[in-house]
Each structure stands twice: as C-alpha cells, then as structure tokens.
Please model this.
Amino acid sequence: MKNSCYDRALSEVIGFVLLLGIIVAAVSLYSTYLIPASGREYEIAQMDSVGNQFTDYKLTVDALWSSRLINVNSPSPVLNVNPLIATTTLKLGTGGNSPLSRLYSPFLNPAPSVGTLAFNTTGDTLNIDSSSYHNSSGNRGEFPIRIASVEYSSNNYYWIQQRYSYQLGGVFLSQDEGTINRVSPLISITNAANRSIVVNIVPVQVYGNGSISSNNPVRLDILQKTVTPYNISSSSYYANSWVNLSVTSADPKTSAMWQQLFREIAIREQLDSLAYTTGTFYDPGTRRYTSFIQITGTNPDSNMNDVTLYVQRVEFDILMYSAGTATT
Model:
C-alpha cells in the first residue's frame, strides 16, 4: 500500500520550489526594469536640482559683489571698505533610497550616483578690447584673461552624463550634444542717447583648488577679493569708435555657443543690425576658434566715438568643504 505521507512531503517540496521560482522571477524583473527606472528618475531629478543649485550659486555671487558697490554706474565703482563673505551648499549625488525596496533589501536600491565638484581652468580665454585702449600706451596687457570655473561633473549610472559650470558670471551646461548657456554672463549692450551704445561687462573670476567626489552636500565659502579696477575701464577710455568682446576655445561647440550667445545679447537689447558684427574664425596655427562681437555704433561719422565701455573687475576666492563621505 502506498504511503500518502510521501506524497504530501513531495507536494510541499514542489510548492516550495515553485514559490522560490516566483520570488526569484519577481526579484529579477524588479532588478531588470524597476531599479533602472527608479534610478533614472532619481538622477534626472538630481541633475535638475544641480542646475537650480548653480543658478542659486550665481545669484549668491551676484548679490555678494553688487552689495559692495555704492555707485554701480561708475566705470570705477566705489566699494565698501570690507570685502564680504557668503556660504552656499551643493548636493553632489543621489542617495539611491527607494522606500519600496527598503522593505526587502538594501541591495535592491538603485546604485547611488556620485558627482564631482572641482575648480577648473578651461583653457578658454576672454578678450576685451576697444579702439582707445588698443591704441593707448596704457594698455597693460590685462587681456585676454584665462577663464576659470566652478564645475560639476556627473557620474550617472542610469541617465546621460552632464556637466554644469559657473564661469564669467554665467551658468553653462555641457553634454554629448554640446554646450548651452543656462544663465547669461554679466554682459549688457544697450542703446543710449544720440545713437550711442553702452557696453557693460563683469567678467567674474573665481579662484580655488581641489575637488570633491561625493553624493553628499558640499559647502562653498565665497570671499570677494579686493582688487584694483581694470585699466581698460578707467576715465581715459570712456569713448570708443569700437569695442570687441571675444572668447577663444579649442572646442568648436563651445565657440559656436559663444557666437550664439553674443548674437542673442544683441537681439535682446534691440541693437540696430548695423551697430554690431558677430562671427567666428579659426586659427590653423593654434587650432583654436575665436567667437566675437564687435560693437561699432550706428553713427555715420566713423570718427565719432559713440561706444562707451565699462568693465567691472570682480574676483572671488572660494573654499570647498565636504559635508559627508561619498557613498559608492
């Protein structure tokens, strides 16, 4: 006679194996589809947050330097006696925290992404020139200046790599397709009386060293330096027949972005199309591209000095501190 106990035991084993198979299949599907989808959402949100944090950082820096100016319309603005300091924070990465996955195992969380914040000298240069400055013995070789930046680089697992940078008072986003300007640098070109034009530029320079890779907040202490005004904006160089702003870069995509930015500034300020020229030229010797905007005004008399140039010199020392340990 067949023992029914063996049948019941066999049924329990088969049931357990089937249940284990269902669990393994569910975990596999979760790991294959849900974890990457969840990780992608976290990283997209993180990159949006980084963009907003860089915008906030720019506004903090702008407020810091402008708060020292007593007469911002003067070519040599009067400054308060004591330089100011401000503090801001940037969160560099994701935490990989899914409330649903924590119910089962921390290994079912999306991998936390780590970002890197660093000071970087891009290799690009900014040149500012004008007719009176160019032909004057007072030209002390102040320009071109090397463009330095505070730069965030992503290390995403589930989303495209992006790089945000703060340079020359603007916020820029770089990815595979190229570079775009998220927030414009401090450049204005405005119409004035008698068909004259006023060019005002604040090429903010930042100084620091080191880098931090983390997915935790990083603190930045921003200290404005006390510097002498640029000679190009002194009283002897008020009136010009032309002013030229240009950026030189080894990257054609960056150069194209600057040319577009110069054109957008002129259009935004509603300049007469005869008052300016934009373009890009390539130097085969240095293998570098130079994008420029030359402002000449619209006065029919070429001897008229109807372009006024103000260049405000603003420089910051920036100290960077880690607020936690990176998670990898």
Q: What stands out?
A: The first strand starts at residue 85 and ends at 91. DSSP finds four helices and 17 strands in the chain. Residues 4-322 form one domain. The chain has a mean pLDDT of 78.
